[in-house]
Amino acid sequence: MSGSNILFILTGSIACYKACDAISRLVQRGHRVRTVATASALRFVGTATLEGLTREQVATDLFAEGHALDHIGLARWADVTLVCPASADRLNRMAAGLGDDLAGALLLAHDWTRPLLLAPAMNPSMWRHPATVASVRTLRSWGARFIESGSGRTACGEEGEGRLAEPADIVAAVEAATGVAPPPG
Ligand SMILES: Cc1cc2nc3c(=O)[nH]c(=O)nc-3n(C[C@H](O)[C@H](O)[C@H](O)COP(=O)(O)O)c2cc1C
What we know:
Radius of gyration: 15 Å
Bound molecules: flavin mononucleotide
Number of domains: 1
Oligomer: single chain
Strand order of the largest sheet: 2-1-3-4-5
Helix content: 40-55%
Distance between the termini: 18 Å
Number of helices: 8
Strand content: 15-25%
CATH superfamily: Flavin prenyltransferase-like
Shape: globular
Structural class: alpha/beta
CATH architecture: 3-Layer(aba) Sandwich
Order of helices and strands: EHEHHEHHEHHEEEH
């Protein structure tokens, strides 16, 4: 397998730890993974972990010296872009077309001929909030594909919808989007 270029954007959720498992699996399966972490994501997972898993520098800052056009370059490099976990805040920002940080600018520069996958993770009330419901509808209408969140006990201790999909399902969805055969089992 030659592997695909996967742009993996992490946003601020406890589920960042599960995203690290998905990143590890994608790398082990021969994909080239480059990560972008929002300021909030960096409160949940460190650059050392992301860099160690991908062997690539983590992009975090829209205005980083020497990386001024990363928001265009990374968007063009990616065969598939994945936001995982996708916070409520991020879904709402994306649907509003905001680009005031690296993740936002990247997503504004997204090439819609290539897949954009969103893996939500949030409290059930956040998932049901009218703003989030409307944003999900808008993002779907633009062509974004959702990796469905699961139901059950969320990290905050409440029952309902909003748990991040399992890492194996995230890998399968990414590979399906890039045309790679799904992992066995
Ligand atoms: C302990 C903790 C856990 C959080 N978990 C989530 C979560 O799972 N989903 C979510 O949408 N927001 C969660 N938040 C809130 C987001 O981190 C916050 O809205 C942040 O602004 C998201 O920013 P970003 O979208 O730029 O990454 C959490 C906040 C804290 C303090």
